[in-house]
Specification:
- It is a single chain.
- By secondary structure, this protein is of the alpha+beta class.
- Helix content is 48%, strand content 11%.
- A hairpin with a 2-residue loop joins strand 19 (1002-1003) and strand 20 (1006-1007).
- This is Calcofluor white hypersensitive protein.
Length: 1031
């Protein structure tokens, strides 16, 4: 009997999907975020108020408002409440990131992916610093926090850029909130410095206000996407999959989340994103029929969006900026590399001829060379060859490094001049951004460019990383898609540009523009290549325990921000079709800034320098463009770099007139002449008679909107990075003396030979090591003013001050025309003054007189660098002035640390007797006859030890260190007779806290540390304290 097959029962109708407006997600995210922070703040204040407002400087009532980190990460239960709520917030947060990508993916295909990446990194790093507190892992917490803030730059500016033009409300709110966000960072940094560096009670509370403001502004910014979602009528549907062709044959229904437009949308803008799913109208039973064609089309579109790269133009842009950075690094490395030989010979050595390498643009006059340089193969080949200047770090001999760097500059300057002659605005912007990046890299690396050949991995270099990135950039340039058929336009010259029809204009005068460009190159290099240079121009010391003006390691980021703002002005001017070189008023404003920098000190002078910085960076793209299109490219760019070379020589003559022939008598101590010449040359590029620029290629290529956006974003990243670097480099605590309880301190003097060791490398870290090992509390460094192109525009004190913790007085600046003197102190500097000692014949001699708070006792310290043996009149007059300064401080305890050039006990008019007798001072050891240059004198203190340490490879001069004991507060010095002062003892006769490091015992055949050892006496000398000394 045949069996009957039963028909399959009908499947139950799937439930209708749950749908809601997408802007609800934004609201939920905002509520949860605010609830997380508000809950932590409430419970923290309610349960642990005095604990969370207390910090390493002060507590309640000086500090009365908690910081974000103390509120969310230190105590139970507020920490746990916060972390639970933040975990719940992560879902809506990720959803908002993907929704913003969805809204922008068709209008801005390239930026939407970058925005998605930034949003994801921002969210993940937020989770990192929330769940890894500073108490768990301080470094990881800081790195993740810095990453989060950096990601806010592309997230916020990218959000503004991708907001539809018709969404006026959202765009306006994003601009206002992002501006307030980044503006709040400046006062936050200021109060953080007041708290961390100067230890001012109450400063951390003010810092906390701005820290909480950043949190609120950050949440407010993310809430704006709710407006975008509301205007686009997006709805989220959660329910059964619509991917069902025949529900009776499909045994697996897959649940998925889909996003679709609300069915009540009346109209659709052409730029609005398409629906992900195309569906028919609902059926009578309320179900939605399946559309296979719509799904396949949507699937294909989604895969294409995921697989197709829309980021090539931004990547090419970043590669071009990095290669521009490499050019500026090579260009600025030439002078300090060749100066090594001049230092050791104290005169012209012949190696200075390497400077002629920057005149290679003369080869542009050879037509086929210029054409080849502008092809892709030529451009990549030349830039690849120029990397020899980066590889030079591996060469052991200074002469070989100089040859490699000179060769690299021949190639690099020739290639860069060829690019600048192309005639598009893109290369001008790239030149400015590359220069600003080089300045930032020095600020981040203790004033040393990390890819210079004079800086190796032992001295803070990142040469291998820099070289690898340069190779990657060249590979990208090699594989870059063509942008046209003209080889000059396809010469790996950057991302596509918007073309305008070029008119064939007659050749135009080039000489004045060439001279102006040469002056600009010199001005950028001399004044702006290191952010602390203009600060050193205005530095005058301390008053009432506070610095009179900005400090390089604390306020150098303001110079980077000024550079970035100048570039931003250039971008805005280009977009508006304006030419900065057509504004005579703008030139006058820039000149006024330079005048204020030169003629005023401290904050006023620094503000003038910032104004000048904005001016110079704003005209850089236009001035580069001004020479484009000339038929005399070889002559034009040769003249430009020849002008720069003359200004370099003039700058050297202002201070090295005693050692350099020609021009010394004319330009001796006349930086004002050089500065006037700089701006007079710059004025030649400005239009003074006719209403339109005399030679601006107005019909040249213009920047694409994406290039402008990338430039603005990079400018923001540079500015924010400079702030974050400053915060990262900030010492965790203020300077502290090495011995607090014994009332002992070490004071030393060292002539450091311009921070270049005997092998031609930067010596900052070698100096740091010996100062740290010897526990020197007060150090005088001579030949320390490096803020000139020939010295590399470096700050010799940065590594020591930031890593070991010192108060710093930089001494007279580069505009004072000395070799430099600097004072480092573990003790607060109450007052300091700079002196230019009488020098009628030789070079100008610097000196610093400062009052230090040493264990509650005011101690005067004098640091000086006197003239050479060849100028006896200078040495006599200088010694009399120093003796006057020390005598006026009597009877206050005083220490003299100086470079004197005299024999011990030499009679007047030799410096020794003048300083000791007229200055009312004691020699640290009157029986040490083997001295010539460096001397330590003292009074009003107990001298307990004296050490002379060999120079090693750091310099040509030894280190001298004296150890002193400060009488107990309220007690005066007792038994100060010569016999008492000269009672020597072995180290075992003193407490171990008096001993110098044992590791430095040795000789030239072995022992010691890094080539340093106790020499002359082969041991430190120790002295007995008077029996009735009160310490």
């Amino acid at each position: 009997m045949a069996t009957r097959r039963k028909s399959a029962p009908p499947l139950a109708k799937p439930p209708a999907p749950i749908a809601f407006d997408a802007n609800i997600i934004a609201g939920v995210h905002t509520i949860l975020s605010l609830a997380a922070f508000a809950t932590a703040l409430f419970f923290g204040c309610a349960l642990h108020y005095k604990k969370i407002v207390k910090n390493g400087i002060a507590g309640y009532p000086q500090e009365w408002f908690p910081s974000v980190s103390a509120t969310i990460g230190d105590w139970y239960p507020e920490r746990n409440f916060f972390q639970i709520l933040i975990a719940i917030t992560s879902g809506p947060r990720f959803a908002l990131v993907f929704l913003q990508y969805y809204l922008a993916r068709h209008r801005h295909p390239a930026f939407s992916k970058a925005l998605l990446t930034a949003g994801l990194l921002r969210t993940l790093s937020c989770g990192g610093w929330v769940y890894i507190t500073s108490n768990d892992d301080h470094d990881a917490h800081d790195v993740l926090m810095v990453t989060y803030i950096l990601c806010n730059v592309p997230w916020m500016f990218g959000g503004i850029a991708t907001t539809p033009l018709q969404s006026l409300r959202a765009r306006r709110r994003r601009r206002v909130i992002s501006t307030l966000f980044f503006a709040s960072i400046i006062p936050m940094v200021y109060f953080f410095v007041q708290h961390k560096v100067y230890g001012i009670p109450g400063a951390y509370t003010r810092y906390s206000f701005f820290e909480w403001a950043l949190i609120l502004l950050d949440v407010a910014y993310d809430s704006i996407i709710g407006t975008d979602l509301s205007e686009s009528n997006l709805r989220v549907a959660i329910g059964p999959s619509l991917d069902v062709k025949d529900v009776r044959t499909n045994t697996l229904n897959r649940s998925e989340d889909t996003v679709k437009h609300s069915p009540n949308t009346q109209s659709k803008d052409a730029n609005d994103p398409p629906d992900i799913l195309t569906t028919d109208a609902p059926q009578s039973d309320g179900s939605v029929p399946y559309s296979k064609a719509g799904r396949l089309e949507s699937l294909h579109e989604t895969c294409a969006l995921l697989l197709k790269s829309h980021t090539r133009e931004p990547v090419s842009f970043l590669c071009d900026v990095y290669l521009s950075y490499i050019f500026w690094s090579l260009f600025t490395s030439l002078l300090p590399t060749l100066f090594f030989f001049s230092v050791w010979q104290l005169g012209v050595s012949g190696h200075e001829l390497a400077l002629l390498s920057i005149l290679s643009p003369a080869l542009l006059g050879i037509s086929f060379l210029r054409k080849w340089a502008l092809t892709r193969a030529g451009s990549v080949t030349l830039q690849g060859l120029s990397l020899a200047g980066i590889v030079a770090y591996a060469l052991p001999r200074p002469s070989h490094r100089l040859m490699a760097v000179a060769f690299a500059n021949i190639i690099a300057v020739f290639h860069r001049s060829a690019q600048w002659s192309l005639g598009d605005r893109y290369h001008g912007i790239i030149a400015a951004l590359g220069f600003a990046l080089s300045a930032l890299s020095k600020h981040a690396n203790h004033s040393n460019n990390p890819v210079w050949p004079m800086v190796t991995h032992n001295s803070g270099g990142y040469n291998k990383i820099g070289l690898a990135l340069a190779i990657i950039a060249l590979v990208e340039q090699t594989l870059r898609p063509d942008v046209g058929n003209d080889p000059e336009e396809t010469a790996a010259s950057g991302p596509p540009v918007e073309k305008k029809e070029k008119n064939s204009a007659p050749d135009t005068p080039w000489l004045s523009s060439s001279v102006a460009l040469g002056s600009l190159i010199f001005s950028l290099h001399y004044l702006l290549s290191e952010p602390g240079t203009i600060i050193s121009w205005t530095w005058t010391g301390y008053s009432n325990g506070q610095p009179n003006g900005p400090l390089p390691h604390v306020h150098g980021f303001l110079t980077i921000i000024a550079q970035s703002f100048g570039i931003l002005l250039a971008i805005l001017a280009e977009r508006a079709g304006m030419n900065p070189l057509a504004s005579q008023v703008w030139f006058m404003i820039g000149s006024c800034g330079a005048y204020v920098l030169y003629s005023h000190s401290d904050w006023l002078g620094f503000l003038g320098g910032l104004l000048m910085t904005v001016f110079l960076m704003s005209i850089t793209p236009s001035l580069v463009l001004q020479l484009s299109g000339t038929a005399h490219a070889g002559k034009a760019f040769f003249t430009a770099f020849f002008t720069a070379m003359l200004l370099y020589l003039a700058n050297v003559w202002t201070v090295a007139y005693a050692f350099v022939p020609f021009g010394g008598s004319l330009l001796r101590e006349r930086t004002d002449f050089v500065l006037v010449a700089q701006f007079a040359a710059l004025s030649l590029s400005f239009q003074w008679r006719t209403p339109t620029p005399k030679f601006i290629n107005t019909d040249s290529d213009t920047l694409t909107s994406l290039t402008r956006t990338c430039s603005v974003a990079l400018v923001a990243v540079l500015s924010l990075s400079s702030v974050l670097v400053t915060l990262y480099r900030m010492p965790v605590m203020g300077p502290q003396p090495y011995r607090k309880g014994d009332r002992l301190f070490n004071a030393g003097i060292w002539t450091v030979h311009f921070g270049i060791d005997n092998h031609g490398h930067d010596s900052q870290r070698l100096i740091r090591d010996i100062i740290g090992d010897m526990k020197v509390d007060v150090m005088g460094l001579l030949e320390s003013d490096l803020h000139r192109p020939v010295y590399g525009n470096r700050d010799l004190t940065r590594v020591i001050a930031e890593e070991l913790g010192y108060y710093v007085d930089l001494g007279p600046g580069p505009n004072k025309h000395t070799w430099g003197a600097a004072l480092l102190s573990k003790f607060p500097i109450l007052e300091s003054h700079h002196h230019l000692l009488p020098s009628p014949v030789g070079e100008l001699a610097p000196a610093i007189s400062a009052v230090l708070d040493v264990f509650g006792t005011n101690v005067t310290v004098v640091v000086s660098h006197n003239g050479q043996e060849e100028d006896p009149l200078d040495r006599e007059l200088q010694s009399k002035e120093l003796a006057r300064i020390m005598a006026e401080a009597y009877p206050q305890p005083t220490i003299f640390l100086g470079y004197v050039v005299t024999k011990p006990h030499a009679k007047k008019p030799n410096p020794y007797e003048i300083l000791v007798e007229d200055g009312l001072m004691y020699d640290i050891d009157a029986e040490d006859w083997d001295r010539w240059c460096e001397y330590i004198l003292y009074r009003g203190l107990y001298r307990t030890a004296y050490a002379r340490i060999s120079r090693g490879i750091v310099t040509d001069t030894e280190v001298q260190i004296g150890q002193f004991a400060v009488p107990k507060h309220g007690f005066s010095l007792v038994n100060d007779a010569r016999e008492t002062r000269m009672r020597r003892t072995w180290k075992e006769g003193l407490p171990e806290s008096h001993w110098f490091p044992m590791e430095y015992y040795g000789n030239q055949f072995g022992g010691g540390v890094n080539g340093h050892y106790y020499h002359v006496f082969h041991t430190p000398l120790y002295y007995k304290l008077p029996d009735d000394a009160a310490l």
